[in-house]
Amino acid sequence: MTTLTLQAKKAYCAKTRRSNYAASLRLEGFNSSLADAQKPLPTRDAVLSAYGCKQA
Question: Closest Cα partner for 25 from 12, 39, 13?
Answer without folding.
Answer: 39
